[in-house]
Design brief:
about 350 residues; alpha/beta; 5-stranded parallel β-sheet; 12 helices; about 40% helix; binds uridine-diphosphate-N-acetylglucosamine; binds 6-O-phosphono-beta-D-glucopyranose
């Protein structure tokens, strides 16, 4: 994440306050994007989850409608794309066939195509009109981890650059830029939860299923946490938008099924508290992700089931919250005797549709 920001985040003399964001590859295209009818975020797998994580912020800062598309679905539906659309294609490898084909389709409709790509010189990096290399370094393991957090970081920077001239957003932008400067340190602090995640993995090693509930900025955290557990630990896991809990998933809840609820303090906090109360009333086995100085949820779960993370500005919190879940899936995988780097049946770049 530090490398994603390097050369792009300009600090004041104190080295701590962010003065501005400069994205060399985007500078000539920002005004076109600002004038577009809408922004569409498109990708597959983890890259799609990074789109979900930044959607709300992108909408808030650009004041444009921001929609999400799974790349394969763009092709299946032959989505209506237009000349005044700005479409952001997110791909770690830059080679994923579905994303590449969706991008070619968007180009044929005249839309502005922007890449958020890790691999310089990859097909998507070359074929897009402009973009941002996330500079995460080579990601060897099949399960995307550092690319996920760096994709979110790059798109947060893009949202900040797009709203540079907005007076009404100035205070909010300042808050986020302060958070951006703190991010690497906060993520390092979240990595220190490794020991607790190993212990937690030991208690979950023989489970058959794990559900994760998130909402708002952390809906993506629930989805991505579940995907990691699924793809490397080979344990059935589902990420659920907490607002949907009472529309189906609640029927699964009993005293045996482990549930993770993300409840860090943002505008969804009160609602997440109520979700926790409803789950607890059904004797659910709760694992909570909460702010490190938040004691108000301690009574809902055993001490070792409460994961306390450092809290940063709301829109950056998903970057911190995903780390304990990535560590949990790592330890679950090792304890269950599976290969962390090369999960069964999966490939790093899927270059066929
Ligand atoms: C670039 C250099 C970087 C150098 C910096 C100095 C490259 C790859 N990067 O970084 O080594 O330190 O200038 O200012 O030479 N692009 C796409 N699609 C994508 C991603 C990028 O078209 O998916 C384009 C960008 O619009 C840009 C170029 O590729 O024209 C390089 O992008 P990026 O590496 O993000 O630009 P800088 O951060 O300016
Ligand atoms: C999938 C991988 O096939 O491709 C996922 O198994 C990955 O882990 C997805 O997130 C998208 O890959 P990329 O390179 O386009 O980000």
């Amino acid at each position: 994440v530090g490398q994603t920001m390097r050369g792009r985040v300009v600090f004041e003399d104190d080295g701590k306050t962010v003065q501005r964001v400069f994205l060399g590859g985007m500078a000539d295209y920002l005004s076109t994007i600002r004038r577009s009818r809408r922004i569409i975020l498109c990708g597959c797998g983890t890259s799609y989850h990074s789109a979900i994580a930044v959607r709300q912020l992108m909408e808030e800062l650009t004041e444009l409608p921001v929609t999400l598309e799974l790349a394969s679905d763009v092709l299946d539906r032959q989505c209506p794309f237009f000349r005044d659309d700005s479409i952001i294609f997110i791909s770690q490898s830059g080679e994923t066939a579905d994303t590449l084909r969706a991008m070619e389709y968007a180009k044929s409709k005249g839309a502005l195509c922007i890449g958020i790509v890790n691999v310089v010189g990859s097909a998507i990096s070359r074929a897009t009109d402009c973009g941002i290399h996330i500079n995460a370094g080579a990601e060897i393991g099949v399960a995307s981890t550092k690319a996920y957090t760096c994709q979110i970081t790059a798109m947060v920077l893009l949202a900040l650059a797009l709203s540079e001239d907005s007076r009404s957003r100035a205070a909010r932008r300042l808050d986020i830029m302060r958070g951006v400067a703190l991010l690497p340190d906060y993520m390092r602090r979240a990595l220190a939860l490794d020991g607790q995640m190993l212990e937690l993995a030991r208690t979950l090693v023989n489970e058959n299923s794990l559900l994760l509930f998130g909402r708002g900025y952390n809906y993506a955290t629930a989805l991505e946490g579940a995907l990691k557990v699924k793809e490397v630990a080979l344990l059935h896991s589902e990420g659920i938008l907490a607002g949907e809990m009472k529309h189906g998933p609640l029927a699964l809840v009993d005293e045996t099924l482990p549930l993770v609820v993300v409840a860090t303090r943002d505008s969804s906090y009160v609602k997440q508290k109520s979700v926790i109360e409803q789950l607890r009333a059904r004797d659910a086995r709760l694992i909570l992700i909460v702010g490190e100085d938040d004691d108000s949820l301690d009574r809902f779960a055993d001490k070792n089931m409460i994961i306390k993370v450092p809290e940063i500005v709301d829109c950056l919190q998903p970057l911190v919250n995903i780390i304990p879940l990535q560590l949990l899936s790592y330890h679950l995988t090792v304890l269950r005797g599976h290969n962390v780097d090369q999960p069964r049946n999966l490939a790093k770049s899927v270059t066929v549709e």
